[in-house]
């Protein structure tokens, strides 16, 4: 990658992030994002621990929840620690290889989460609409295959999108108007025609965002039809509550991702990109445990048992 203006090789990018903010604002943002990151890591870590160790949480729903939390941990760790460092240091440069690696991980984990959310919606559809066949349809082997499929397509998709982003030389500017390497912004910096790459990423977003969304909509439409056909108001309310929680996560994640990767480039800008980037890189991973798990009685009981075992082990060690 050669800079056509002066012949020098482009070896790094500069993440502008919150560089133009005052020092007091950056300090406040550092404290806020550090608290949110720590909270998200702690809550998702707790869910991973209890869903993988508590034998009472052996249903497919909790199996998927554990993997969703693992994806969220991977997702926020890919972007937020770097942002926290750049809030307290003046050097905001990242190497070309680091930017490429970060973008690959964001793509891979993000696509895997899109697909996993669709599989989780299908799991709820089978549990609510076909309860007698649920154990047979959603067997452990099937669940492992579904999670493996999400990871496989995510990691393969990351290779394709990385190639489309970095296929051309960079010779315009190396300043990225965001706090991490986001594909549409990086593509706009290439000295070739960025339209082909942007169109390919848009087409890919249609597949990896809209296809799972269609499965989610169909699943919940059938769930809604099944709920409305029931006579028990108590069972109806409980199912509505569970489905509303799942749909809230889907709306948060998909809305922000669609804005970033399916909007025309002319509608983007630092003031618009950063809030949506923050929404799907830290806010959604932090909200997932609250929305999915902490309203669930079985999850609350498992957390109490896990914390009780920890307290007992500490008492015995004294």
UniProtKB/TrEMBL annotation:
Q: Which InterPro entries match?
A: GPCR_Rhodpsn, GPCR_Rhodpsn_7TM, Olfact_rcpt
Q: Which residues form the G-protein coupled receptors family 1 profile domain?
A: 43-292
Which keywords label this protein?
Cell membrane, G-protein coupled receptor, Membrane, Olfaction, Receptor, Sensory transduction, Transducer, Transmembrane, Transmembrane helix
Q: Which residues cross the membrane?
A: 27-50, 62-84, 104-122, 142-160, 200-223, 244-263, 275-294
Q: Where in the cell is it found?
A: Cell membrane
Its placement in the membrane is given as: Multi-pass membrane protein
Please verify whether the record's keywords include Cell membrane.
yes
The record's annotation in Pfam families points to: 7tm_4
Q: Name one GO cellular component term.
A: plasma membrane
Q: What is its main location?
A: membrane
Q: Which family does it belong to?
A: Belongs to the G-protein coupled receptor 1 family.
Per the entry, what this protein does is: Putative odorant or sperm cell receptor.
Q: From the Swiss-Prot or TrEMBL record, give the protein name.
A: Olfactory receptor
